[in-house]
Amino acid sequence: MSNRYRCPFENLLILDFNTTCEQNNYDYPSEIIQMNVTVINIRDKMIREDQTFNRFVRPVINPVLSDYCSRLTGIDQNSINTADVFHVVYDQFVEWLREHNFQEKTFAFVCEDHQTIWLHAQYQYLLRDRSMPAIFRQWINITTVLQYLIPERNYDNLPGETFVDKSSNFYNIEFVGNSHNSMDKSSYLAKLTKRLLDDNNLVTVNRVLRCNVNSRRVPLNVDPNWRTTFQSAMLVFGRMLPLVPAVVYTYFTDDDYAKCQYCKNGPDVCTGVVHEQFPYEVYEQLVEPSAFASAARLDIDFDGEDEDEVEDEEDVNDENNVNDENDVNDEDDVDDKDED
Protein backbone atom coordinates (compact mmCIF):
# COMPACT_ATOMS: atom_id res chain seq x y z
CA MET A 1 0.00 0.00 0.00
CA SER A 2 1.33 3.44 -0.91
CA ASN A 3 2.11 5.89 1.88
CA ARG A 4 0.08 8.52 0.06
CA TYR A 5 -3.30 8.33 -1.64
CA ARG A 6 -3.35 8.95 -5.38
CA CYS A 7 -5.68 11.93 -5.09
CA PRO A 8 -4.83 15.61 -5.74
CA PHE A 9 -7.28 16.98 -3.17
CA GLU A 10 -7.12 17.48 0.58
CA ASN A 11 -10.60 16.07 1.12
CA LEU A 12 -13.21 14.17 -0.85
CA LEU A 13 -16.84 15.03 -0.11
CA ILE A 14 -19.13 12.14 -0.94
CA LEU A 15 -22.41 13.74 -2.03
CA ASP A 16 -25.85 12.24 -2.45
CA PHE A 17 -29.37 13.65 -2.77
CA ASN A 18 -32.91 12.35 -2.38
CA THR A 19 -35.61 14.02 -4.43
CA THR A 20 -39.39 14.10 -4.68
CA CYS A 21 -40.75 11.50 -7.07
CA GLU A 22 -43.80 9.61 -8.25
CA GLN A 23 -43.84 5.97 -9.24
CA ASN A 24 -43.54 5.36 -12.98
CA ASN A 25 -43.56 9.08 -13.76
CA TYR A 26 -40.28 10.68 -14.82
CA ASP A 27 -41.86 13.82 -16.26
CA TYR A 28 -41.96 15.22 -12.75
CA PRO A 29 -40.46 18.40 -11.22
CA SER A 30 -38.22 16.57 -8.76
CA GLU A 31 -36.94 18.71 -5.90
CA ILE A 32 -34.16 17.85 -3.47
CA ILE A 33 -35.53 16.70 -0.11
CA GLN A 34 -32.35 15.40 1.52
CA MET A 35 -28.69 16.32 1.14
CA ASN A 36 -25.90 14.31 2.68
CA VAL A 37 -22.12 14.68 2.58
CA THR A 38 -19.58 12.28 4.08
CA VAL A 39 -15.91 13.30 4.25
CA ILE A 40 -12.73 11.39 3.43
CA ASN A 41 -9.58 13.14 4.66
CA ILE A 42 -6.83 12.34 2.17
CA ARG A 43 -3.84 13.10 4.40
CA ASP A 44 -5.10 11.04 7.34
CA LYS A 45 -6.62 8.35 5.09
CA MET A 46 -9.81 8.22 7.09
CA ILE A 47 -13.54 8.75 6.88
CA ARG A 48 -14.36 11.65 9.17
CA GLU A 49 -17.48 10.44 10.95
CA ASP A 50 -17.49 13.71 12.95
CA GLN A 51 -17.83 15.88 9.84
CA THR A 52 -20.99 14.57 8.21
CA PHE A 53 -23.46 17.08 6.76
CA ASN A 54 -27.06 15.88 6.61
CA ARG A 55 -30.15 18.03 6.09
CA PHE A 56 -33.71 17.48 5.01
CA VAL A 57 -35.03 20.02 2.50
CA ARG A 58 -38.60 21.30 2.18
CA PRO A 59 -39.84 21.17 -1.43
CA VAL A 60 -41.88 24.07 -2.78
CA ILE A 61 -43.61 22.83 -5.92
CA ASN A 62 -44.89 19.58 -4.42
CA PRO A 63 -44.57 20.02 -0.63
CA VAL A 64 -46.47 16.80 0.11
CA LEU A 65 -44.45 13.66 -0.56
CA SER A 66 -46.06 10.90 -2.53
CA ASP A 67 -46.61 7.64 -0.66
CA TYR A 68 -44.18 6.04 -3.09
CA CYS A 69 -41.46 8.59 -2.30
CA SER A 70 -41.87 8.13 1.46
CA ARG A 71 -41.72 4.35 1.17
CA LEU A 72 -38.74 4.43 -1.15
CA THR A 73 -36.56 6.87 0.80
CA GLY A 74 -37.82 6.25 4.33
CA ILE A 75 -38.38 10.01 4.74
CA ASP A 76 -41.56 10.98 6.56
CA GLN A 77 -43.68 14.04 5.84
CA ASN A 78 -43.02 15.65 9.23
CA SER A 79 -39.27 15.71 8.57
CA ILE A 80 -39.99 17.61 5.38
CA ASN A 81 -42.54 19.98 6.90
CA THR A 82 -40.06 21.19 9.52
CA ALA A 83 -37.10 21.49 7.12
CA ASP A 84 -35.73 24.61 5.46
CA VAL A 85 -36.06 25.27 1.73
CA PHE A 86 -33.11 24.50 -0.54
CA HIS A 87 -31.43 27.91 -0.70
CA VAL A 88 -31.34 28.04 3.12
CA VAL A 89 -29.91 24.53 3.32
CA TYR A 90 -27.29 25.42 0.72
CA ASP A 91 -26.29 28.47 2.78
CA GLN A 92 -26.00 26.17 5.79
CA PHE A 93 -23.80 23.87 3.73
CA VAL A 94 -21.52 26.76 2.72
CA GLU A 95 -21.21 27.73 6.39
CA TRP A 96 -20.43 24.10 7.26
CA LEU A 97 -17.64 24.17 4.66
CA ARG A 98 -16.19 27.26 6.30
CA GLU A 99 -16.41 25.77 9.78
CA HIS A 100 -14.34 22.78 8.68
CA ASN A 101 -11.97 24.81 6.51
CA PHE A 102 -13.03 23.09 3.29
CA GLN A 103 -11.84 25.66 0.81
CA GLU A 104 -12.78 25.69 -2.85
CA LYS A 105 -10.32 23.86 -5.11
CA THR A 106 -9.00 21.81 -2.16
CA PHE A 107 -11.90 19.35 -2.20
CA ALA A 108 -13.90 17.50 -4.82
CA PHE A 109 -17.33 15.91 -4.73
CA VAL A 110 -17.63 12.18 -5.21
CA CYS A 111 -20.99 11.04 -6.63
CA GLU A 112 -22.34 7.66 -7.61
CA ASP A 113 -22.97 8.84 -11.16
CA HIS A 114 -23.45 11.99 -13.24
CA GLN A 115 -27.12 12.38 -12.36
CA THR A 116 -26.47 13.63 -8.82
CA ILE A 117 -25.10 16.93 -10.11
CA TRP A 118 -26.07 17.08 -13.79
CA LEU A 119 -29.73 16.24 -13.15
CA HIS A 120 -30.65 16.87 -9.51
CA ALA A 121 -28.43 19.81 -8.55
CA GLN A 122 -28.75 21.55 -11.92
CA TYR A 123 -32.52 21.18 -11.93
CA GLN A 124 -32.80 22.55 -8.39
CA TYR A 125 -30.93 25.69 -9.44
CA LEU A 126 -33.05 26.04 -12.56
CA LEU A 127 -36.16 25.95 -10.39
CA ARG A 128 -34.62 28.79 -8.37
CA ASP A 129 -33.56 30.67 -11.54
CA ARG A 130 -29.93 30.67 -10.36
CA SER A 131 -26.71 29.57 -12.02
CA MET A 132 -24.86 26.51 -10.75
CA PRO A 133 -22.19 27.42 -8.15
CA ALA A 134 -18.55 26.78 -8.98
CA ILE A 135 -18.28 23.84 -6.58
CA PHE A 136 -20.87 21.88 -8.58
CA ARG A 137 -19.18 22.26 -11.97
CA GLN A 138 -16.86 19.24 -11.62
CA TRP A 139 -16.97 15.97 -9.72
CA ILE A 140 -15.74 12.39 -9.46
CA ASN A 141 -18.08 9.80 -10.94
CA ILE A 142 -17.21 6.79 -8.81
CA THR A 143 -19.09 4.37 -11.06
CA THR A 144 -16.71 5.23 -13.88
CA VAL A 145 -13.68 4.74 -11.63
CA LEU A 146 -14.88 1.26 -10.73
CA GLN A 147 -15.75 0.34 -14.31
CA TYR A 148 -12.21 1.06 -15.47
CA LEU A 149 -10.84 -1.19 -12.74
CA ILE A 150 -12.93 -4.25 -13.55
CA PRO A 151 -10.94 -6.72 -15.71
CA GLU A 152 -11.86 -6.14 -19.36
CA ARG A 153 -14.44 -3.65 -18.05
CA ASN A 154 -16.74 -6.59 -17.41
CA TYR A 155 -18.92 -4.51 -15.14
CA ASP A 156 -22.26 -5.74 -16.43
CA ASN A 157 -21.43 -9.33 -15.49
CA LEU A 158 -20.83 -8.54 -11.83
CA PRO A 159 -23.50 -10.09 -9.57
CA GLY A 160 -26.22 -7.67 -8.53
CA GLU A 161 -28.81 -5.43 -10.16
CA THR A 162 -27.60 -1.99 -9.02
CA PHE A 163 -24.27 -0.24 -8.67
CA VAL A 164 -24.46 -0.67 -4.91
CA ASP A 165 -25.11 -4.41 -5.31
CA LYS A 166 -22.30 -4.89 -7.82
CA SER A 167 -19.66 -2.90 -5.95
CA SER A 168 -20.67 -4.36 -2.58
CA ASN A 169 -20.33 -7.91 -3.89
CA PHE A 170 -17.08 -7.21 -5.75
CA TYR A 171 -15.30 -5.63 -2.76
CA ASN A 172 -17.19 -7.45 -0.01
CA ILE A 173 -18.28 -4.16 1.56
CA GLU A 174 -21.55 -4.51 3.43
CA PHE A 175 -24.23 -1.94 2.67
CA VAL A 176 -26.13 -0.93 5.80
CA GLY A 177 -29.48 0.82 5.59
CA ASN A 178 -31.71 1.92 2.73
CA SER A 179 -30.01 2.17 -0.68
CA HIS A 180 -32.48 4.92 -1.64
CA ASN A 181 -31.68 7.11 1.37
CA SER A 182 -28.94 9.67 0.77
CA MET A 183 -27.40 9.37 4.23
CA ASP A 184 -27.03 5.59 3.93
CA LYS A 185 -25.87 5.83 0.30
CA SER A 186 -23.28 8.51 1.08
CA SER A 187 -21.90 6.44 3.96
CA TYR A 188 -21.52 3.41 1.71
CA LEU A 189 -19.94 5.37 -1.15
CA ALA A 190 -17.38 6.75 1.32
CA LYS A 191 -16.36 3.19 2.29
CA LEU A 192 -16.13 2.20 -1.36
CA THR A 193 -14.09 5.27 -2.30
CA LYS A 194 -11.70 4.68 0.57
CA ARG A 195 -11.24 1.09 -0.56
CA LEU A 196 -10.36 2.28 -4.06
CA LEU A 197 -7.85 4.72 -2.60
CA ASP A 198 -6.42 2.08 -0.25
CA ASP A 199 -5.76 -0.10 -3.29
CA ASN A 200 -3.60 2.69 -4.74
CA ASN A 201 -6.06 3.68 -7.47
CA LEU A 202 -6.18 7.21 -8.82
CA VAL A 203 -9.34 9.04 -7.73
CA THR A 204 -9.71 12.46 -9.29
CA VAL A 205 -12.19 14.61 -11.23
CA ASN A 206 -13.51 12.79 -14.31
CA ARG A 207 -16.70 14.75 -15.05
CA VAL A 208 -17.40 18.41 -15.78
CA LEU A 209 -20.43 20.40 -16.92
CA ARG A 210 -20.34 22.19 -20.25
CA CYS A 211 -22.82 24.25 -22.25
CA ASN A 212 -22.47 22.74 -25.71
CA VAL A 213 -21.90 19.21 -27.05
CA ASN A 214 -21.77 17.56 -30.46
CA SER A 215 -24.27 14.86 -29.54
CA ARG A 216 -27.13 17.33 -29.08
CA ARG A 217 -26.91 18.28 -32.75
CA VAL A 218 -28.13 14.83 -33.69
CA PRO A 219 -31.97 14.80 -33.86
CA LEU A 220 -33.62 12.75 -31.15
CA ASN A 221 -36.64 10.58 -31.90
CA VAL A 222 -38.58 10.90 -28.67
CA ASP A 223 -39.96 7.65 -27.30
CA PRO A 224 -43.76 8.10 -27.02
CA ASN A 225 -43.50 6.39 -23.61
CA TRP A 226 -40.64 8.53 -22.35
CA ARG A 227 -42.60 9.72 -19.32
CA THR A 228 -42.71 6.19 -17.92
CA THR A 229 -39.38 4.88 -19.23
CA PHE A 230 -36.25 5.87 -17.32
CA GLN A 231 -33.66 5.66 -20.09
CA SER A 232 -35.93 7.48 -22.56
CA ALA A 233 -36.58 10.22 -20.03
CA MET A 234 -32.83 10.71 -19.50
CA LEU A 235 -32.40 11.18 -23.25
CA VAL A 236 -35.09 13.86 -23.26
CA PHE A 237 -33.60 15.59 -20.20
CA GLY A 238 -30.20 15.47 -21.89
CA ARG A 239 -31.64 17.81 -24.52
CA MET A 240 -33.79 19.95 -22.23
CA LEU A 241 -31.24 20.71 -19.51
CA PRO A 242 -28.90 23.57 -20.46
CA LEU A 243 -25.65 22.04 -19.16
CA VAL A 244 -24.40 18.60 -20.09
CA PRO A 245 -21.93 16.27 -18.32
CA ALA A 246 -18.72 15.60 -20.21
CA VAL A 247 -15.95 13.10 -19.63
CA VAL A 248 -12.61 14.69 -18.77
CA TYR A 249 -9.38 12.71 -18.90
CA THR A 250 -7.00 15.36 -17.62
CA TYR A 251 -8.00 17.90 -15.01
CA PHE A 252 -5.87 20.63 -13.46
CA THR A 253 -7.58 22.49 -10.64
CA ASP A 254 -5.79 25.80 -11.16
CA ASP A 255 -6.67 25.87 -14.88
CA ASP A 256 -9.97 24.00 -15.09
CA TYR A 257 -11.87 24.62 -11.85
CA ALA A 258 -15.44 25.78 -12.54
CA LYS A 259 -14.55 26.60 -16.15
CA CYS A 260 -16.64 25.37 -19.07
CA GLN A 261 -14.42 23.34 -21.36
CA TYR A 262 -16.41 24.55 -24.37
CA CYS A 263 -16.90 28.31 -23.98
CA LYS A 264 -14.02 28.74 -21.47
CA ASN A 265 -16.20 30.87 -19.18
CA GLY A 266 -16.92 30.55 -15.48
CA PRO A 267 -20.27 29.60 -13.94
CA ASP A 268 -21.67 33.13 -13.81
CA VAL A 269 -21.35 33.44 -17.58
CA CYS A 270 -21.67 29.83 -18.71
CA THR A 271 -25.18 29.03 -17.55
CA GLY A 272 -26.32 27.28 -20.70
CA VAL A 273 -29.68 29.02 -20.29
CA VAL A 274 -29.12 31.01 -23.48
CA HIS A 275 -29.69 27.74 -25.24
CA GLU A 276 -27.67 27.65 -28.46
CA GLN A 277 -28.82 24.07 -28.80
CA PHE A 278 -32.47 24.63 -27.95
CA PRO A 279 -34.25 21.29 -28.60
CA TYR A 280 -37.12 22.51 -30.76
CA GLU A 281 -37.51 19.10 -32.39
CA VAL A 282 -37.93 17.48 -28.96
CA TYR A 283 -40.74 19.81 -27.91
CA GLU A 284 -42.43 19.40 -31.29
CA GLN A 285 -42.69 15.65 -30.64
CA LEU A 286 -44.32 15.96 -27.21
CA VAL A 287 -47.98 15.08 -27.18
CA GLU A 288 -48.52 17.38 -24.21
CA PRO A 289 -46.34 19.94 -22.40
CA SER A 290 -43.62 18.56 -20.16
CA ALA A 291 -44.16 19.17 -16.45
CA PHE A 292 -40.40 18.79 -15.91
CA ALA A 293 -39.60 21.50 -18.47
CA SER A 294 -42.44 23.86 -17.59
CA ALA A 295 -41.60 24.00 -13.86
CA ALA A 296 -38.04 25.10 -14.65
CA ARG A 297 -39.07 27.37 -17.56
CA LEU A 298 -36.99 25.32 -19.95
CA ASP A 299 -39.63 25.57 -22.67
CA ILE A 300 -40.29 29.29 -22.37
CA ASP A 301 -38.70 30.14 -25.74
CA PHE A 302 -40.40 27.41 -27.68
CA ASP A 303 -42.46 28.82 -30.53
CA GLY A 304 -42.69 25.77 -32.77
CA GLU A 305 -40.37 27.22 -35.39
CA ASP A 306 -37.26 25.51 -36.67
CA GLU A 307 -34.10 26.29 -34.79
CA ASP A 308 -31.47 28.25 -36.65
CA GLU A 309 -28.56 26.03 -37.50
CA VAL A 310 -25.44 27.23 -35.75
CA GLU A 311 -22.22 25.94 -37.24
CA ASP A 312 -19.30 26.22 -34.92
CA GLU A 313 -15.92 24.95 -36.02
CA GLU A 314 -14.77 24.96 -32.40
CA ASP A 315 -17.20 22.18 -31.52
CA VAL A 316 -14.86 19.28 -32.09
CA ASN A 317 -12.88 17.15 -29.68
CA ASP A 318 -11.00 20.19 -28.46
CA GLU A 319 -7.54 20.57 -27.05
CA ASN A 320 -8.83 20.24 -23.50
CA ASN A 321 -9.27 16.49 -23.96
CA VAL A 322 -12.95 16.56 -23.05
CA ASN A 323 -15.50 14.21 -24.63
CA ASP A 324 -19.26 14.57 -24.81
CA GLU A 325 -21.31 12.37 -22.55
CA ASN A 326 -23.12 10.29 -25.17
CA ASP A 327 -26.69 11.53 -24.83
CA VAL A 328 -26.34 11.20 -21.07
CA ASN A 329 -26.83 7.48 -21.50
CA ASP A 330 -23.47 5.75 -21.17
CA GLU A 331 -22.22 2.85 -19.09
CA ASP A 332 -22.55 4.95 -15.93
CA ASP A 333 -26.33 4.54 -15.95
CA VAL A 334 -27.42 1.80 -13.63
CA ASP A 335 -30.88 0.57 -12.83
CA ASP A 336 -31.41 2.05 -9.39
CA LYS A 337 -31.31 5.74 -10.37
CA ASP A 338 -34.74 5.53 -11.95
CA GLU A 339 -36.31 5.31 -8.53
CA ASP A 340 -34.82 8.14 -6.47
From TrEMBL:
Residues 303-340 are annotated as: Disordered. InterPro entries: 3-5_Exoribonuclease, ERI-1_3'hExo-like, Ribonucl_H, RNaseH-like_sf, RNaseH_sf. GO terms for cellular component: cytoplasm. Keywords: Exonuclease, Hydrolase, Nuclease. Residues 11-202 form the Exonuclease domain. GO terms for molecular function: 3'-5'-RNA exonuclease activity; nucleic acid binding. It comes from the Eukaryota. This is Exonuclease domain-containing protein. It comes from Caenorhabditis nigoni.
